[in-house]
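User: Please predict the structure of the protein below. I'd like the answer in structure-token form so I can feed it into my own downstream comparison script.

Assistant: Understood. Taking the following sequence of 761 residues as input:
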Amino acid sequence: MGRERALSATPSADVAAVESAISLTGEARLALGAEGAPPLDGIPDIRPVLARSEADGSVLDGAELALLIPALDAGPRLAAWGRAVEPVAGEIGRRARELPPLTELRDRLRHALEDDGTLTDRASPRLRQLRQQIRDRRRRIVGELERLLQTEGDRLFADRFVTIRHGRYVLPVRAEARQRVRGIVHDRSQSGQTIFVEPESLVEANNDLVQAQREEEQEAARILAELTAAVRARRPELDAYVAAVGELDWVFARAHAAERMTATAPAVDRTGRVALREARHPLLLAQAWQDPERAVVPVDLELSPDRPLLLITGPNAGGKTIALKTLALFALMAQVGCHLPAAEGSRLPVFEALYAIIGDEQSVAENLSTFSAFVKQIREVLAEADTRSLVLVDELGAGTDPDEGAALARAILETLAERGALVVATTHLEPLRAFASSEPRARNASVEFDTRTLAPTFRLRYDVPGQSYALAIAGRLGLSPALIERAQAHRSTDAARVSQLIAWLDEASRCEAERTIAMERRESETAARLAAARESEAGATARAREIVERAKAEAAGLLTDVRRAVAAEWERLKRAERSRPALDESRRRLRDVSARVVPAPAPRSAEAPLQPGMAVAAEHLGLRGQLIAISGDSATVRSGAISVRVPVSALRPSDAAAVPPRAAGAGRRQANADGPVRAVAPELMLIGRTTDEVQDLVEKYLDDAFMAGLANVRLVHGKGTGALRKAVRGVLSDHPLVESFRDGEPAEGGNGATVAALKVS
């Protein structure tokens, strides 16, 4: 159903409908990143079955009715999926959640039918009773016939098995023994040596069996008619269900295509302006998927109501026609709700009509030359084009005398501009380039040509007319240099001067563009260095502020102790005798208190070599603990209940004792000597964050998880465009505490999550 919607999609001219379709595609992309695609697999196309059930009195067979069951089974799955994605894709989730409830019909069909469409014994009590009778009578008949086979043996019977002819149980009797078996002959073998006889004693039993079978068939027909009537009664809801599933499939087809093309949502411009940035033709993208060496060169396309005419000039095979087709295809794609392979911020109006005169429509059968065919087409365009029309003309003014063709082309462009239509045309005619340079409503553009390599670059430059470079391209394609030189001699002086001037402008523009790119690169590098310096400054400021706050807290504690000691000594002096020994003792105690505030400087000594058992510190991690072992360039340090591996070069002897081990059962909590103990979760949710936010969040989370002793953490970034996943993995690959990382298992989120192992023992 979704495929048919895609193949029959018609661009809408309603602005609100176009905006809604584009928004719906965006929601589908968000849903893909959050929960994946909707569970549409295995839903059959039930529309032919519904069509056959429409007529009153029609009866569907069991297989047709059984086809409805997997389609209806998908309803609850889609509703559950819709509830899951509704927080990020409200309209998509609502549509899936509000599918018509058909559980009663589904349960009735599943109760009455097997997967292959056979009616079950549960379909009705009468059917169960008849089938039980049939089984009992068949068992008795077969038992009696097998008894006859065993009794008479090979003397009467050609084979020792019971068979069926014309719906009745018979025995294979030898032809010569026919007279010895009384009964009805139902068939004869091809050789005539065997006849199939229904024994006289079993005729009534067979009659009863056949009657029961007919009653079973009648009951089955009645049940199928009832089930068909039930389907017919729910036909409007079934039609709505099928339409909703097909629409959902079509929307997600657009979302999948947008994800693969790295497309963006175009903005609908209500002023009639076209602004496409870095537009890439979808078919060229598809070729690049097959052959990555074939790079796709993006093109910028700009049109506005105040300058509605754009004339593109330049060499053959330079990309002029591709630019026309890209604009036309983008307009049609946007008006069916597709996202476009272009940069963010691209805009398009909603057109009511699109006219394209591309290619040669000459026809011997219709007596049309190239020029006659063009006139016939442009006559139709001029009769209908208006302010909501887009007109694309390839090789405008060709096919006739260049002077008259240019004059006619100019008149056509002026007429279309007066009508308010947006027009993009390609041409090789010099008068039209001059017209575009002088006409306020027109604008020149050209496809770039590299004169050094004699090859087009496929880039579009605005406000610069281009030349055809026909002789240069002909020489590149194999014509002899002598022929090219002769052709150059035949060119007029004015044409040669114009070509030289344009070539000089091309070279000057190219050099200026290279200088601009170099300046932008230097500015970008400078900005990056400045940002890094500011970040380092901010980090240093934060660390200094932390040290100062810690020092203030320690000083406040010491000051409190000193005040308490001085007060105690003063009270003792007031109560004690004021003899010389007592005063000396008080002075000594006050010196001890003073020494606690300002300790005497210890003599500096050479740093002792690191040995297991020493108290050490890793300042870059804020870690203090006991050195357990040294292995090569790394060492194992125990801090509390965790052991970590750090480079030996990062360790220094510490005067403080090793961090005491935590009590058992403390859980995975981050211990900080200067703050409270807090829990660290084993996973970090990043969906909805920007790439800049992700870097800071992941770095801080990894530090906290490492200090909390977590061996493995899960970073949930979703699938989406892959930008968050790339940013997360960039941080993980450079972080010193990360041992390794991988995609999540299906139960861990698959490609929507990354699991990292930390360097924690």
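That's the full token string. Residues 598-605, 657-669, 671-677 have pLDDT under 50 and may be disordered.
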